[in-house]
Amino acid sequence: MKVYISYFYNIRFFPNNLLPVSTAGWDRKWYHNFGGNDNVFYDKRGVINGVRMSILSPAKIHDASEDCSKECQNDPNTCNFLSKYNDYLHSLDFNKIYNNLLEGSKLWAENACLENVDICLMVYEKPDNPCSERPALINWFKENGVEVEEWVR
């Protein structure tokens, strides 16, 4: 299983063997077929939508009073919010989370009669946005021996 990262806009281009898993605090409404955060469905191309891994959400540590300030100059290395998110990720049990992703991909593969299912962690920001949780997620996986690639069509 490969692990990718992308943003919600790209789901429309995913092959049906790429499982999008939202790590966002608030998903796009269409991602749940306008049916609430627990609604999981297959889109017209056979790509599953609505799968969440809320434990990886930056909303877990978000405090509205700590929104981005100009002091960080959009640099993830000096951003208080992203620093706290990085610390939060390091407090989690990586193996447990990764095993949950593996089990989810296997279950989806069996249900959809697919082989070689890959995972794509979904975030809001595009790759060129320097103020994103994307680098923290990529680094956390890498530190635990799992390479995460940016998904490109």
Helix content: 25-40%
- Note the run of SSEs as H and E: EEEEHHEHE
The number of helices is 3
Biggest sheet layout: 4 strands, parallel
- The count of β-strands is 6
What is the approximate shape?
Answer: globular
Please identify the structural class as seen in this structure: alpha/beta
Poorly predicted spans: none
In short:
The protein is α/β, with parallel strands linked by helices and 153 residues long. It has three helices and six strands; from the N terminus they run ββββααβαβ.
Give me some keywords for this one:
single chain; 153 residues; alpha/beta; 4-stranded parallel β-sheet; two-stranded antiparallel ribbon; 15% strand
Q: Would you give an account of this structure?
A:
It is a single chain. This protein is an alpha/beta fold. It is 26% helix and 15% strand. The chain contains 3 helices and 6 strands, in the order ββββααβαβ. Strand 3 (41-42) and strand 4 (48-49) form a beta hairpin. The longest helix is centred in the C-terminal third of the chain and has 19 residues, at 94-112.
SSE layout:
Elements: E1 3-7, E2 18-22, E3 41-42, E4 48-49, H1 80-90, H2 94-112, E5 118-123, H3 134-143, E6 148-150
Parallel strand pairs: 1-5, 1-6, 2-5
Antiparallel strand pairs: 3-4
